[in-house]
Amino acid sequence: MSIFNTKPIASLIAETEGKQGLKKALGAVDLTMLGIGAVIGTGIFVLTGVAAANYSGRH
């Protein structure tokens, strides 16, 4: 098996026949938790960067 294997276009089209696009996988609670996690994660990285800028290297 190679990482450069490709699928024929006809095969891809045949697999998607009769499907109506993407189905929903995440609900409102899932999306809310994802947003809260992103905000908290960003805050952690910002605080780490501020600490590194203020306390590393020369004083």
What form results from the Cα inertia axes?
elongated
Strand tally: 0
Oligomer: single chain
Q: Could you estimate the helical fraction of the residues in percent?
A: 55-70%
Describe the structure.
This protein is mainly α. The chain has a domain at 24-59. Helix content is 61%, strand content 0%. It is built from two helices and no strands.
Short synopsis of the structure:
The chain has 59 residues and is mainly alpha-helical.
List the helices and strands and how they pair.
Blueprint: H1 9-16, H2 28-55
Notable traits:
2 helices; 59 residues; mainly alpha; elongated; single chain
